[in-house]
Write a structure and sequence with these properties.
Blueprint lengths: L24 E13 L4 E6 L4 E6 L17 E10 L7 E12 L19 H6 L1 H4 L3 H23 L3 E2 L5 E2 L11 E4 L2 E5 L4 H6 L1 H4 L1 E9 L12 E10 L5 H21 L1 H6 L12 E3 H10 L13 H15 L3 E5 L22 E6 L2 E8 L4 H10 L8 H8 L5 E7 H9 L20
The chain binds one RNA strand through strand 1, strand 2, strand 3, helix 1 and strand 15.
RNA sequence: GGCCCGAUAGUUCAGUUGGUUAGAACGCCAGCCUGUCACGCUGGAGGUCGACGGUUCGAGCCCGUUUCGGGUCGCCA
């Protein structure tokens, strides 16, 4: 009987380890990405989890016949001699001694995935063939970078003494109410898919002081646009004992700096493949909502009808303004009108028509909404009553305030949106591994 | 959902005023090429022009219906 120890010892090595194995015989595993046949030898390009490795087939040193069985798409173990690349400084290649075929494709690929980039195919087809498309090194780099963003968020917050939590996605009441919530049958009872972890993360404040969650949220909005998904990943945080909502903005700025540094250090390959223009982020400029409206009116000569929120064009203009004025890709807008913010938002003491809240714009698009929450029980109940809400329905949530919670606040950051704007995508679907929208539930 | 636009080879597209056998690029297949790296060269295969109906001697092209898709607005992360 074999004993399982949990320590998988792979006999094959990664491309990273080639440098210290020059002159040695090693094995590497991967999928044949491309075969370029020359007169009496061939380049066999192997695709591994993060690299593309050049292997050389030649009857001079190969004990294996390069026949029709060795084809693109085969999963293989290649054994051979590690040598320096003859034409590329600092690169290594493998002189093939043997190839063991582990698996063969049944059919050729429907798309060309072994060029520098995928042909410009229709979005619909692109998403239908997602698992094929992602085999292309440039395509898969998108979600490796997305991993880096989420990982940076997590690592930074853990260092700041945040606790990572998991909240339910099947809920009995929606956080913000409204019609844009998915209904679900739950053993004969009507329940909903969570639109936000808002209530749960607040409930954790008296317990852990600082919490965060990276998880999907669901919005049943009938919006058919290039920047909406019906399921997206929300990176949420909530922190207690704050002096003001500016503390939350400090944490977010710190997290973003950490994320971009992490990408620069550990995701160089991917940044290069995707030719990413990294934002510079020392400090993020801040402007009040009404001052921002003022700039739109006076600097950009735009007529404004809605003084409660920005439309997409206004956000674009503010993005341009922040770039020109401060050379910043980011802009915090604070003090949004109370009317447009949820019932748990804390109003500004000096001017209750506005809230202690903020949005973060990245290159002219909103990626975060955050703010300070009401912590006093009586104030919270009063605001809910003023809005005509049924206070009794929120009994379990209001236990938070009733039994005492420190001043606190938090934010939510859309993972697909930040990915989208970092990479300059025109459609958020490119930043979602398997997007869910009005028309798409497969793959 | 409203408005605008589109559907032609595996993929991206071109197709003139309605007129012979519907073209190109990439991919695929065959052959050639001592080091390519979006390799190169030569040749070949590949089409129910989304579907249904109509006008016409004749429809990829004009008209109607329908299906699928794209853009945009409402809303928001």
């Amino acid at each position: 009987m074999e004993k399982i120890t949990g320590n998988l010892q792979k006999e094959s090595i990664q491309y990273m380890e080639f440098a210290k194995n020059v002159g040695k015989i090693v094995s590497i595993q991967g999928i044949i990405h491309r075969i370029r046949e020359m007169t009496d030898f061939a380049f066999v390009i192997l695709r591994t989890s993060r690299d593309v490795v050049q292997c050389i087939y030649s009857p001079k040193f190969s004990n294996y016949q390069l026949d029709e069985k060795v084809q693109e798409g085969c999963s293989v173990t290649v054994t051979g001699l590690v040598v320096q690349d003859q034409t590329r400084e600092g690169r290594y290649e493998l002189q093939i001694h043997n190839i063991a075929i582990l698996s063969q494709p049944a059919e050729p690929l429907p798309l060309v995935i072994n060029k520098k980039q995928i042909d410009n195919i229709a979005l619909d087809l692109y998403l239908n063939m997602r698992s094929v498309v992602l085999r292309n090194p440039k395509e898969r780099a998108v979600f490796k970078l997305q991993e880096g963003i989420a990982r940076g968020f997590r690592e930074y917050l853990l260092k700041q003494n945040f606790t990572e939590i998991r909240t339910p996605k099947i809920v009995f009441a929606g956080a913000e109410g409204g019609a844009n919530i998915f209904k679900l049958d739950y053993f004969g009872k009507q329940v909903f898919l969570a639109q936000s972890p808002q209530f749960y993360k607040q409930m954790m404040i008296p317990i852990y002081e600082r919490v965060f969650e990276i998880a999907p949220v669901f919005r049943a909005e009938h919006h058919d646009t290039s920047r909406h998904l019906n399921e997206y990943i929300s990176m949420d945080l909530e922190m207690g004992f704050i002096n003001s909502f500016y503390d939350i903005m400090e944490i977010e700025t710190g997290a973003l700096k950490y994320i971009f540094e992490l990408l620069n250090h550990e995701y160089k390959n991917e940044l290069e493949l995707l030719n990413v223009q990294m934002p510079n982020i020392e400090s993020i400029p801040t402007i009040k909502f009404m001052d921002a409206k003022d700039i739109i009116i006076h600097k950009f000569k735009k007529k404004i009808t809605d003084f409660k929120d920005f439309d997409p064009e206004e956000e674009q203009l503010l993005g341009k303004w922040a770039k020109k004025e401060f050379d910043s890709d980011f802009l915090f807008v604070t003090h949004y009108p109370s009317e447009k913010r949820p019932f748990y938002a804390m109003d500004d003491q000096n001017n209750p028509a506005y809230t202690c809240s903020f949005d973060l714009l990245f290159r002219g698009i909103e990626i975060t909404t955050g703010g300070q929450r009401i912590h006093d029980y009586h104030s919270q109940v009063a605001k809910m009553q003023a809005r005509g809400m049924q206070v009794a329905e929120f009994e379990s949530y209001l236990m938070l305030h009733k039994y005492g919670v420190p001043p606190h606040g938090g934010l939510g950051l859309g993972l697909e949106r930040i990915t989208m704007h970092l990479l300059g995508f025109k459609n958020v679907r490119y930043a979602s591994l398997f997007p869910r929208d009005l028309h798409r539930v497969t793959p």
